Amino acid sequence: MLKVARPVWQLHEFDKPLITATYFGFTPITAPKITEVDIEASSHCAENPHYDAAEKAALIRTYIDQNFADLPHPLALAYRRPARKLRTPGYSLHYIGAPSGIAEAALIRTALSILSEEGYKNLRVDLNCVGDKESLGTYERELTNFVKKCGSNLSAPLKESLKENVFNLFKHEEEEMIQIRSTAPSALSFLSAASRLHFKEVLEFVEALGVEFTLAPELVGEKNHSSHTVFGIRAVGLDRELSLETPDLLAVGYRYSRLGKRLGLRKEVPMAAVSIFCSDKPAEERKIYKELPRPKFYLVQLGREAKIKTLSLIELLRENRIPVHHFLGKDKLTAQLTSAEQLRVSYLIIIGQKEALENTATIRNISTRAQDTIPMSMLPQYLKHISL
Asked: Which of 102, 122, 28 is nearest to 314 (CA)?
């Protein structure tokens, strides 16, 4: 975890969802306050409670004002998002500085864990990809041509809405709109080569998580600031534990890197986030923690296969209340070992290509260099019996 004393943004009290997020490397911070500067910087984006550009602009401004660029990257941040106009309360998770699919995968896995801890069952991930700016522009032109050909019989208000923003095709729930979008072209058909590779990587990560997912072409985000993978998390069916029909959409995530330059970043920094819309419990019903979990182990991952396995392993350890240090976004062994040395941990948990293929983990005593290799499924039990 980050060890920086900046009272402006560092939290001293944590509720359960924020504690859950720390297992995946997220640092809890004070929610950025949305200012007129943020609203102006995102004024070119359509207002939408699921795709909140002003909130993303506020986080970028905080990133600049608090010199977050000086901290080790990728940088993972989490906070409670207060309610405001057209927006339900909940939580926001941001993954900054990771161009690869690990960003989306970490956001999805963490959001699923938070929602599960909040009592939601039968969770499903919906995925789509609108690609980079070039891909999105091509798709918008094709969609506009499609609407001109197939939308001639729409009512005047709906025609005006599509003229204003063709992506409103996926926003309206009128029967005539639903029928037209059922035959609309998919954004996946217009991805650039780079965007296609990125989405393939995201799918590999999500498949490895072992969760139900489906492709959802209606998830197109907000064209002026969201890009690449757009995902939503839904609860399928009745949630017996909560005794109510769960909300249609429990979480939405996407990349928003294009907003950075409007707030003063010199270059485009990879930024991705997920907004979680779980019910906001009254303060008196939320258990508050004064300290974060203190990891005693450092998880090192080496290679692509190992990185794909790592998120599921962290979830297994979280379920057993075993926090571990890790630097998921880093591929180089040197950076991970340097981080482990600075944190003065006694044991490393090593997942290399061999371990990933065999579903094992190697636990190494840093002082004695002695090590054991055991099945991943037995790792929680093994770690609990280590004397530190």
From this structure: 102
Q: pTM for this structure?
A: 0.91
Return d(Cα 293, Cα 140) in angstroms, integer: 46
Angstrom CA distances, 321 to 44, 119, 232, 317, 362, stand at 44, 17, 27, 6, 20
Q: What is the pLDDT of residues 135-181, one digit of tens each?
A: 999 999 999 999 999 988 899 999 999 999 999 999 888 898 899 98
Q: Which helix (H) or strand (E) holds 223?
A: none
Give residues with Cβ within 8 angstroms of 200, minimum separation 6: none
- DSSP summary character for residue 46: P
Helix ranges (H only) for the chain are: 16-22, 36-41, 53-65, 102-117, 133-150, 156-164, 175-181, 193-209, 260-263, 304-319, 333-343, 353-358, 379-384
State how beta strands 325-326 and 347-351 pair.
unpaired
Cβ-contact 63, 69 below 8 angstroms? yes
Closest CA to 35 of 9, 62, 10: 62
In whole angstroms, what is the distance from residue 213 CA to residue 267 CA?
34
Q: Smallest Cα–Cα separation from 281: which of 80, 116, 86, 121?
A: 80
Q: Shortest CA distance to 59 belongs to which of 83, 43, 75?
A: 75
